[in-house]
Give the backbone structure.
Amino acid sequence: MARVVKLGVKRPAAAPLLPDPPAREARYTLISVDDHLMEPPHTFEGRLPAKFQQQAPRVVETEEGHEVWVYEDTPYFQVGFMCVAGRPKEDHRLEPARYDEVRRGCFDIHARIHDMDLNGCWASVNFPSGVTGFGGTLFSESKDPELGLACTRAWNDWLFEEWHGAYPERIVPLGITFLADPGKGADEIRRNARRGFTAVTLPEQPHKQGLPPVFDAYWEPIIRACAETDTVLNLHVGSSGFAAMPPGAPLLELGATLFQAMAFESCAEWLWSGWPARYPELKIAMSEGGIAWVAGLMDRLDNIMARSGYGGGWPDPKLSPSDCLRRNFWFCMIDDPSTITTLPAIGVENVLFESDYPHGDGTWPDTQQVMQRLLGELPVEWIRRIAHENAAALYRHPLPAMCRP
């Protein structure tokens, strides 16, 4: 690997990876709708036009021994909490890492399938978390927009051909798109849809990324492309950064605590943008947001429409905002024990499940155990919906010949 200038960031010694855990009993057929990948160093090799290949994102080793992505002369760190599955708890640190310090399942598709099998996971939606950001925003911020578009297309080609293509029944094809030009972004969504992509990720609060807010007509080509191609629009909490922090706040602790509050806020913004009302076919998944806040949002919407008169700007007189949530939005559970009772209000058909491999919030390799604790007392029909049926219908993804329970 090439070397870059010294960054002056000491890399602590990493504890060895833990051995493989025993395979968990698969009580449920699981489609996890929020997992992550760490792009391997060869992701962009040979995938850009010749004039851009030398400018492609690449992994370099620093003088301190970190392995980092470099794009347009800027280093981008892989941070420890992004890939902690299989690492000792004392080694869950927030700092740049090397590929040999994380499980191969983070960046090697064959090892990923092995880890999914250990966890009893049938299929998985995989978000980027390395050089692109959760919402695929980095390439849209490129100094050279043509290079940024080429990198966006190259990442999608790698995801489809290598990551999804090796195990098409096990990996749901989720892409990124070009946000700096919504017309070209829409073209990329359509290009991907033609070859089988069923999902795309966007930053949940684009104004925090220096883009127009979701209320702006700027987004219409991308929204229309998603609706017309049946591409699920995935809004991953944190893809636009952490919540605003007051001075002196513990950034990691408070930021992680506010994830569900951020999901509430961004979901309300997308609802009141009017896009779901104007495009009834639009499908929006609130990824890693939990469900604890959803019934409360619906209650608030109903109060606004029934009493206060604050909802006069709602664009569809035939459909209430809360019913629009039930029609156009899906919500993702990871560990919400106290709010299982709100499922009837939310609509069982609108709830999905996730393992969040390999992140710090993730339940690997014990996702099956977590599902048993959370869902085990529910009606079997509800369990099937939450564990796999809702996700299979939403993402148009195949199920195995026999589904559990």
About this structure: Residues 39 and 343 are 36 Å apart (CA to CA). The chain is about 30% helix and 15% strand. The longest strand covers residues 31-37.
